[in-house]
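Could you help me review a protein record that somebody else here produced? What it holds is a sequence and that sequence's fold in token form. I need someone to confirm that the token line plausibly describes how this chain folds. Take the sequence as given and treat only the tokens as open to question. This is what I was given:
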Amino acid sequence: MASLKVSVVGADQEVWSGTASMVVARTIEGEIGILPGHEPMLAILGDGEVRVTGEDGKKLTATAADGFLSVENDTVTIVAGNASLVK
């Protein structure tokens, strides 16, 4: 099964990286779901959460604001001025 390589990066540190089966994030145009094989894109993040579903089914949530989301070749990069894991 195909997977995504995901990195969530804040201004001062990498918050999380790993492989996932799905990523859901809020952009300024609304919420977007990303699966393996997604078309390349670049979007501005809206205030909200990034939800990552790992290949093992575990879910991870991070807050991310003031940044962008990039998708290319099954690689999702989320770069935010403010990013942290939700516990």
Observations:
- The mean pLDDT is 95.
